[in-house]
Specification:
This protein is an alpha/beta fold and about 325 residues long. About 35% of the residues lie in helices and about 20% in strands. It has an eight-stranded mixed beta sheet with strand order 1-2-4-3-5-6-7-8, sandwiched between helices. Helix 3 crosses helix 9. It starts with a helix and ends in a 13-residue tail after the last helix.
Length: about 325
């Protein structure tokens, strides 16, 4: 992937927000591999706090009714990314984890700064719980997950649900997440240049998403939440050469200390964003492993949640 970056001059942030978004859309198909089949998709419009939220529902061919569902939040620093940039990743997880996936096109900064993304993320989760039957899903086995900023939103969604007395997700999947915007950790100094996600890009994303004075809010920095013990069993993935590595691992450690069943998987030698590069063999193998963990985690979690209609309360 670094060779791809060198050959194309790809940077996560290039010029304006609009230019960076166009670049991400243009380059994503170059590394995410052939379209994963057989997976069917359909577009949905989900009620949100500021209007409809575009979502995409993925269903592997032949998957039984009443199977688990993953509500997925894409990465991109809360500024970039959309349903298309993460389409193949969602197809991959759907097929190889044996789940339906609801991918969420939450509002992006800077047009919609925090907490807009978190509000949309929660709304999509509540929709999934309240409409599980229509989505072909088992309401007891609805997970939340995401990569990078999306991993952050997955944790925030689970924490907010717990804090509001809503049924918590059955499982939490976090791929190289940002979890604490208040502390600069060692991995940011070690890998903040030359490994796709740079120190400058992290600053650029954060400045467009949230004011510095608000970064200790648990909706921004879920590591600082006081109710981590209420989170579901979790699978946290980090990359060895990722400036966000230490944040993700600190979150996994905090979950463990809070008594939450958690598996931390560091892929040594990997960089941020590898989940989208399914064309690259070792990254694809890592995502097979991730899909297997999601499948196993949801199989173990069946029956731990309240009925779906409880999500309409509060």
């Amino acid at each position: 992937m670094l060779r791809f970056q060198a050959a194309t001059g790809f940077r996560l942030v290039r010029g304006t927000v609009a230019e960076s978004r166009r670049q991400m859309r243009r380059n994503s198909p170059l590394v995410d591999g052939p379209t994963v089949q057989p997976v069917h998709s359909r577009e949905l419009a989900v009620p949100g706090p500021a209007g409809e939220i575009a979502c995409r529902h993925f269903e592997p061919d032949g998957l039984a009714v009443g199977s688990p569902l993953l509500v997925y939040y894409h990465g991109g620093g809360w500024v970039l990314g959309d349903l298309d940039t993460h389409d193949n990743l969602c197809r991959f997880l759907a097929l190889h984890a044996g789940v339906r996936v609801l991918s969420v096109d939450y509002r992006l900064a800077p047009e919609h700064p925090a907490p807009a993304a978190a509000d949309d993320a929660l709304a999509a989760y509540r929709y999934a719980r309240g409409n599980a039957a229509g989505l072909g899903a088992d309401p007891r086995r609805i997970a939340v997950g995401g990569d990078s900023a999306g991993g952050n939103l997955a944790a925030v969604t689970a924490l907010t649900a717990a804090g509001r007395g809503l049924p918590t997700p059955a499982f939490l999947l976090m791929l190289y997440p940002g979890t604490d915007a208040t502390v600069r950790r060692r991995s940011r100094d070690l890998f903040g240049d030359g490994f796709l996600l740079t120190d400058d890009a992290m600053t650029w994303f954060a400045d467009r998403y949230v004011a510095e004075a608000d970064r200790s809010d648990p909706r921004i920095s879920p590591l600082l939440a006081g109710n981590l013990a209420e989170l579901p069993p979790s699978y946290v993935v980090t990359a060895g050469f990722d400036p966000l590595r230490d944040e993700g691992e600190a979150f996994a450690t905090a979950l463990l200390e809070a008594g939450v069943p958690v598996v931390l998987r560091r892929h040594a030698g990997f960089i941020h964003g590898f989940a989208n590069a399914l064309l690259i063999g070792r990254f694809r193998e890592a995502m097979f492993e991730t899909a297997g963990a999601l499948r196993a985690g949801l199989a173990l979690c069946a029956g731990r949640d309240a009925p779906a209609d409880a999500a309409s309360s509060g």
